[in-house]
Predict the structure.
Amino acid sequence: MIRQLTSLGAPRAARRLRTLTTIAGAIGGAIAGSLAGTVTLEAQQAGFDRTKPPALGPAPALTVPTVYANRLPNGVALRVVEHRELPLVQITLNIAGGGRMDGDTPGLASFVANMLDEGAGKRDATALQAELAYLGASLSTGASWDNTTISLKVARRNLEAALDLMADVVLRPTFAATEVRRQRDLRLASLLQQRDQPQALASLAFSQLLFPEGHPYNHPLSGDSISTARLDSAMVRDFQTGSYRPARATFYVVGDLSTAEARTLIAARFGQWRANGPERTPAPVLVQPVKPQGVKIVLVDKPGAAQSVIQIGTPGVERTSADYAAIEVMNTILGGSFSSRLNTVLRETKGYTYGAGSGFAWRPLPGPFLASSSVRTNVTDSSLVEFFTQLRDIRTKLVDPAELDRAKAYLVLGIPGDFESTSQIAGQMAGLATFNLPLEWLTEYVENVGKVSADDVRRVAEKYLPSENALVVVVGDLARIRPGIEALDLGEVSVREVGQIVRE
């Protein structure tokens, strides 16, 4: 090093030496600071009790994005959130209706929604997907019980071209007869496979028991083989023109553009959308869900099954219930989180299953409450005992304060994570709008969760959870599980054949 400095000459050598001295001093200071920090950290850790989790501080105040509302002259509604962090745009179109519009053809709404991107405008399905891939865009279509949804996510620079494709999908689907037949055959094959899927059989059987004929939820969203076999391109097109109406449509736009830009872009492509033909309306609800008297157990035979699928439930409650916050806290404790009682007992303590949970299906029409799990065949009866023990305990005993606080924190602290991306923000807006709730409602919800007491948890559990009155469906190897279940003497036991459940 001395030779190198000497070869540079006196002035340059002096400057180099000062630089090296400065660097050495900085490194030394950094090392000293690091050592001092280590000493301080060790001192802090010495007094830290690792047997207890750190206490959570108070949840920060929730601030939801500002939503700009607008409407086009033809009735199309527009909700915009400017989200400038990334040059991306999410556009979600919800058309009110969904599976409740099926009428006497179960599965029609979901089939039509799935057909939308199987050819649109002048493009077949392959050409459409190729153009979307070229633009780096993702487009999806589908239907729930209450809405048909078309979602587009794309970089801002390619938004106009991608929106042209979305407009073709929504307004100008081809519904080619060959594609309809192909998709119909694929669905028929999928429905046939349900005979060998215990989870699907359990869900079908439970829905049929809880929701009688005449109720929209009696049949699955994807329909059955009988209704699917009748589908043709004329039926599909009639449904699309009769139910996809501008007055039912709402665009949720989130991303790197202004409200004025969003309105201009949507209006240019959907401003001339007009309703054609007679309007299709949801079928009336002719019957109400079955309220079980006592425990009714239905067994479905699946010979040789290594697991039994258990579903326990009862009619649910309206999403607009004043008890909503208390119900959510209660269910989080019971089965709505990984650390819930059902999952802890059945998975962690007993080792009966990979997972167990519970929840309410929130829909404009009350859906079911359902507690469920897939358990080892040889512990089916023992698992039923644990299910009913947990259902009884939360109805009759006050929850521990720490357990209550953990559930409330789980719900409140999880909300900000639902607003991280453009897709999540659009999803939150669309989901709440199904119940005519604005984003600002979440602030009220957070406050209500904070007010839930142990008495509230016990009250709503006693009011809404099954215990003495419940529908139970078990799909498994009856030769092995039936004697043990009957020995429990929980209630009336009956058997249904697979052919009675899967309608062909």
User: Anything to note?
Assistant: The first helix runs from residue 2 to 7.
